[in-house]
Amino acid sequence: MATAGTTNLWGDGEKIDANAKPKLRVGLIGCGGISGVHLDGWKRLNPTAKIVATADPIEERRHRRADEAGVAKDMRFPYLDDMLKAGVELDAIDICTPNGFHAPISITALNAGINVLCEKPLAKNPGEVRDMIAAQKKSGKLLMTAQHMRFQDNSVRMKEYIKDGKLGDVYYARAHFMRRRFLPPRPGFLDVAISGGGPTIDIGVHILDLTLHLMGHPEPVSVTGVTPQKLAKRTDIRGWWGEWDRDKINVEDFAVGFVRFKNGATLSLECSWLANIKEDEYMKITLLGTDAGAEWPEMTVHGEEAGSTTDIKLRFPTDNVGGHQKEIAAFTDAVLTGKPSPVPAEQSLNVIRILEGLYRSNESGKEVQV
Question: What is the DSSP letter of 14?
Fold first, then answer.
């Protein structure tokens, strides 16, 4: 089934045809955990789009994922540079590496005339994103951030409902992504030099991007907040994804911030990996408008009509295709049809400006301009 607004891209979704000739030849860069979710999306598009090469410095990982994707033995490499030196013909790459490698890999690919789908966050800081945008504009190729939550059915339906102004002037939003004991134990999440930060840039980026998307992408002007590490060093705190190196973790485990926008709207953001809350995981967006308010993922709209308050529950059919799969379909459709990036890098730049502003505000103890 094709996603709304795309051509009919889906294949049989069952198996890879090693002999198929794809319209979009894709290199998978980074073969860790998230790449498995992406692989399902690419399988669904076969033979329209197909992973033809993999790259990962860890041999076992690149071969395991390549086997799953049906990639030929001679099309498996440690790095993208090796792939390019070997003359592999690529139309696009899908970047699933740790955050610190997003910018250099994207720029290398764009300079080589290759379209780029890059996992979130697009980069660690605004300067890197600006360099990526410059490379994209010079190349004329497509650069898209893999913000899969935009493509979930409930997000798409909420956006469709409110896009014509049914909420009026959205003047305030609350964005929460809180986890109780789900700190990712892998080194790529623990070292700020690689990750760029903790939950702020890992999961905060998800809920912030979706909130800005629902708000219509207002221009941020200033941020104030704190990004402390409160629980991550404690030996009596246990992680439900496994133990982490408490000596080496140097990122925050909690963040809260307040954002001001050029149009007068404001937003509050909360995110954590290790929070003493009731729920294992808690995601919520609240939008307050002059005509009505809305809540996601509850999919409710709250207003007043004829002197009475009203509460509406949005209901809609679903097709059981996940956000990751739909983002990959949207990327493929955009590349093949010449459409603009479904998640423009300029929008991702504003997300990173806000998140980086949180870190700067924490260091200075003051509100900072973004």
Answer: S
For the purposes of burial, counting CB atoms within 10 Å of the CB of 59, is it exposed (0-12), middle (13-18) or buried (19 or more)?
exposed
Report the largest interatomic distance among the alpha carbons of the chain, rounded to a whole angstrom.
70
In angstroms, the CA 18 to CA 349 distance is 38
Span of 19-23, 191-195, 222-226, 239-243 with lowest mean pLDDT = 19-23
Rounded distance, CA 43 to CA 45, Å? 5
Q: Indicate the pLDDT class of residue 21, thresholds 50, 70 and 90.
A: confident
Please choose, from the candidates 179, 48, 204, the residue with its C-alpha nearest in 3D space to the C-alpha of residue 120.
204
Run of H or E residues at 173: strand 170-179
How many residues does the structure list for the chain? 370
Q: With 70 as the cut, is the pLDDT of residue 257 above it?
A: yes
- Asked if 229 and 253 count as a contact pair (C-beta separation under 8 A), the reply is yes
Q: Which residue ranges make up each domain of the chain?
A: 24-147, 150-323+350-369
Instruction: Give the separation between CA 8 and CA 5, rounded to whole angstroms.
Output: 10
Question: Letter for the amino acid at 304?
Answer: E
358 vs 197: CA distance, rounded Å? 11
Rounded Cα distance between 219 and 17, Å, is 45
Residue linked to tokens 């605004």: 126
* Angle of the 345-364 helix axis to the 126-139 helix axis, nearest 10: 160
| pTM over cut 0.70 | yes
Please choose, from the candidates 250, 246, 249, the residue with its C-alpha nearest in 3D space to the C-alpha of residue 236.
246
CATH T-level assignment (fold) for domain 150-323+350-369: Dihydrodipicolinate Reductase; domain 2 (3.30.360)
Q: What class, spelled out in words, does domain 24-147 have in CATH?
A: alpha beta
